[in-house]
Amino acid sequence: MIILTIRTDQPEAELGVYDGTRQLAYKTWPAGRELATTFHRAMDEVLGRAGETVQDVQGIACFKGPGSFTGLRIGLSVANALAYGLGVPVVARQNPQWLERGIADLLAGRDDVAAVPEYGSPVHTTPPKR
Predict the structure, then answer these.
(1) Rounded distance, CA 121 to CA 107, Å?
(2) Tell me: the pLDDT tens digits for 33-60?
(3) What is the DSSP letter of 67?
(4) Degrees (nearest 5) of the Cα angle 93, 45, 11?
(5) Could you report the per-residue pLDDT of 72-83, keeping only the tens digit for each?
(6) What are the start-end ranges of the E strands in 8-119?
(7) How much is the pTM?
(8) Phi, psi of 81, deg, nearest 5
(9) For the range 15-19, what are the long-range contacts, defined as Cβ-Cβ under 8 Å and sequence gap of 24 or more?
């Protein structure tokens, strides 16, 4: 099973490609405030290094937080869109074992249907002006 792994909760983003539990390629880069513009290029690069394309992805494991609101929102939105478009399972896990747990859950046939973020505290929104 070809698995794409995504972590975007910090200024340095991470993407990985695994064949089951075997790492084929991994990339970290200082995405910072440029994550939305660098993510897809980085994804194509890491998949290419693994000898795969986005169409080869059979599952997606991502870090769900806590962390940066915008970083998590971008990474998990891409994960959910890819999972839906490719018709593959997606799982979102947290804590230091997120990667191992996510891969193990995908290999066991689990699917969260949608990756939902955990921001670490309630989201603070500005009430609409009246």
Answers:
(1) 31
(2) 899 999 999 999 999 999 999 999 999 9
(3) S
(4) 50
(5) 999 999 999 999
(6) 12-19, 22-30, 59-63, 90-93
(7) 0.90
(8) -65, -45
(9) 15/42, 15/43, 15/46, 16/46, 16/99, 17/46, 17/47, 17/49, 17/50, 17/52, 18/103
